[in-house]
Amino acid sequence: MDNKKSNTEYNARNINVLKGLDAVRKRPAMYIGDVSSRGLHHLVNEVVDNSIDESLAGFCDKIEITIREDGSVTVQDNGRGIPVDIHPEEKRSALEVVMTVLHAGGKFDKNSYKVSGGLHGVGVSVVNALAEWLKAEVKRDGKIYFQEFRKGVPVAKVKEIGKAGKNESGTKITFFPDPEIFNTTEFKFSTIAERMRELAYLNKTITIIIKDERNGGEEETYHFKGGLVEFVQYLDENRQPLHKTIYIEGIKDNTPVEIAFQYTDRYTENIFSYVNNINTTEGGTHLSGFKTALTRTLNNYAYKNKLIKEGKINLTGEDFREGLTAVLSVKVAEPQFEGQTKTKLGNSETRSAVEMLVGEKLTDFLEENPSIGKIIIEKCSRAAEAREAARKARDLTRRKNALDTMHLPGKLADCSITDPEHCEIYIVEGDSAGGSAKQGRDRKFQAILPLKGKILNVEKAKINKILENNEIKAIISAIGAGIGVDFNEEKARYGKIILMTDADVDGSHIRTLLLTFLYRYMQELITAGKVYIAQPPLYKIKKGKEEFYAFDEKERNEILKRLKVNGKGNSKEPLDEKNLKGVSISRYKGLGEMNPEQLWQTTMNPETRTVLQVMIESAAAADKIFETLMGDDVEPRREFIEKNAKYVKNLDI
Fold first, then answer.
1. pLDDT confidence of residue 390
2. Tag placement on the chain: N or C end, fewer CB within 10 Å?
3. Are 522 and 530 in contact (CB under 8 A)?
4. Catalytic status, residue 506
5. Cα(531)–Cα(499) distance, rounded to whole angstroms?
6. How far is CA 597 from the centre of its chain?
7. Lowest-confidence range among 195-204, 293-302, 334-343, 482-491?
8. How confident is the model at residue 296 (pLDDT cuts 50, 70, 90)?
9. Does residue 91 have a pLDDT over 70?
């Protein structure tokens, strides 16, 4: 190897300066997370956030989102409308400045917005940069103004195009995402609707209307006068509440705080926290303040009213949160978030504000509603008893450190590398598939844990019963990071946890049971992006000595097209069995039908496999889905399946 230094010059001419919105188009993931469907829908959220900020300021009570027939999206509000007069420094329209300059907007002026969300003020300009085209229409001062952009660049200056009504004002943004940037430009009505429903719950004065002008013409209107109370009731729709919803609202140290919560007959806690409408999935000081106040207040109330007998087990914070569903929303003028993803609040003053307000208001509520207080303490006492019963079982599954293999399950075929960053574990359905996976894997970095049958449905079980389940104990021991409140993601022995089940009804059920367990008791693995779903092929196509694998019917037909089989090979046409001359198609019913070499080649080889990363777009939506699918009530589950059946592919009957 030549170690001589290169003679290539490196000077000022080598320094590239990206002007305007070029930086956004060059590195879009820095601004919207990624360029997949997730990033695509984030564009809509950013435009809507501007309208929500207008609502928080008291100037907007209606937002309309429309998915157009051409695939573009329109967001329209009845706020004040983006200013269009000439900016004193930029010497051009304020509308153009807002649409083309990063960190430009009214949310940096506290006279305009006391609180705001969004991406630190870069939202709408980022949307403009990543749109093939964008059209902005503003109503204000009795006039209608218009400006069009192409890939973030103005087509022309702002112009007046008509007269607005006497009391009409607002902003209308229509955009089409740039296909050169995004992997897909197809918006999903359900994805947009989930976020809009959440925003409507968090902002009880606003009405949000969503329309889809494409096939089907879906439409939803969200307006919840009850706000957070209705949010909690919606989340607990399929659970049995033990009392009426408790609602706390007030302002402490200039921080508006809203909390709604209730206890149910379930055994897991579901607390969702928001700052300025942003879902703080990692919690923060506001959540810490709520938990501290809840524990202290309920504990004091229990002892004061002799609801806990002397000598009985002491109740902990964990006990006071079992079966709790809560939504916490605070409005902070200058929020300090840890990291760019805005998932954890760091303001210390917010903790004390929430803690004091909850302590005062909850104490008053319990004194006025002793029957509810008694129900809550009884629920928490039963939780403490179950916790104590589970302690020994938990101790058996807890490992001293990530490298300790003393208590690893016997059926685990571990890997030789001990660095979690380079290790992955396949949790496999069945001994047959597990055997093939063990033979086909790369023993250096791939571990295999075969499961026998279906694991326990943790949605319906107490922690002590969960820890008695052999398959769950094996999973906990293998991952090695504990469970529930004791879980420590940093101690996980593997950097990837891959669920590999058959592509049939039973396989889907087992996968859902596993995801439910991971979501309820090891959620940090999912939020850290460490949980994946293997995608084994459904078909093997063979022509002569050539073999091809397809993951669905569309890919199968595309392969047949390349092989000049089945006429034109249109993926939407039914398969013409008569034209399959010299070609054989095998439909895999299960992983066990593949030999080790095939399983490695199609499903386990990092260079050729396809795995889906499990993400939590909305914790509240995820909680609702798991409760619907795995809860006791049959009717909501039936309705969910009927509504979503059209999206299901490759379902074996």
1. 74
2. N
3. no
4. yes
5. 8
6. 35
7. 334-343
8. very high
9. yes
Question: What percent of the chain shows pLDDT beyond 70?
Answer: 83
Query: Which one of 212, 502, 623, 627 is the catalytic residue?
Result: 502
Angle at alpha carbon of residue 141, lines to 137 and 142, rounded to 5°: 80
| Parallel/antiparallel/unpaired status of strands 246-252 and 255-263 | antiparallel
Task: Fold for 404-535+613-647, please state it.
Answer: Rossmann fold (3.40.50)
Got the DSSP string for 438-488?
HHHS-TTTEEEEEE-SPPP-GGG--HHHHTT-HHHHHHHHHH-S--GGG--
CB neighbours of 412 closer than 8 A, spacing ≥ 6?
447, 448, 449, 474, 477, 478
pLDDT for residue 552 is more than 60: yes
CA-CA distance, 453 to 470, in Å (whole number)?
11
Which residue in the list 64, 194, 258, 429 is annotated as catalytic?
Answer: 429
Q: Count of CB atoms within 10 A of residue 457's CB?
A: 18
The CATH architecture to which 22-222 belongs is 2-Layer Sandwich (3.30)
Q: Which fold has domain 228-394?
A: Ribosomal Protein S5; domain 2 (3.30.230)
Q: Catalytic: 632?
A: no
Tell me which H or E stretch contains 497. strand 496-500
How would you list the strands of the sheet with 255-263, edge to edge? 246-252, 255-263, 324-330, 270-275, 278-279
Q: How confident is the model at residue 649 (pLDDT cuts 50, 70, 90)?
A: very low
Place of tokens 């305009």: 112
Alpha-carbon distance 462 to 386, whole Å? 7
Catalytic residue status for 429: yes
Q: Which two tokens stand for residue 241?
A: 């509440």
Strand partners, 625: none
Distance, in Å, from the CA atom of 524 to the CA atom of 531, rounded to the nearest integer, reads: 10
Reported as a single tens digit per residue, the pLDDT across 424-456 is 999 998 888 888 899 999 999 999 999 988 889
The catalytic residue among 34, 318, 506, 633 is 506
Nearest CA-CA partner of 113 in 333, 279, 280: 333
The reply to whether domains 228-394 and 404-535+613-647 share a CATH topology is no
Asked if 517 and 472 count as a contact pair (C-beta separation under 8 A), the reply is: yes
| Per-residue exposure over 203-228, b if at least 16 CB sit within 10 Å of its own CB, e if not | bbebebbbbbbeeeeeebebebeebb
Task: Give the N- to C-terminal CA distance of the chain in Å, as an integer.
Answer: 60
Tell me, what's the pLDDT at 114? Answer: 61
- At 580 the pLDDT is 66
- Residue 489 one-letter amino acid: E
Round to whole Å and give the CA distance between 306 and 374: 10
**pLDDT at res. 505:** 76
Helix-strand-coil split of the chain, %, nearest 5 = 40, 20, 40
For residue 327, give both structure tokens.
């939504």
**Active-site position among 282, 378, 442, 504:** 504
CA distance linking residue 493 with residue 403, whole number of Å: 7
Written as six digits, the tokens of 81 are 């409308």
pLDDT for 586: 83
Radius of gyration of the chain (CA): 28
Q: Where are the domains of the chain?
A: 22-222, 228-394, 404-535+613-647
pTM: 0.76
Query: Contact, 640 vs 628, CB < 8 A?
Result: yes
Section 234-238 average pLDDT: 90
CB 618 within 8 A of CB 194: yes
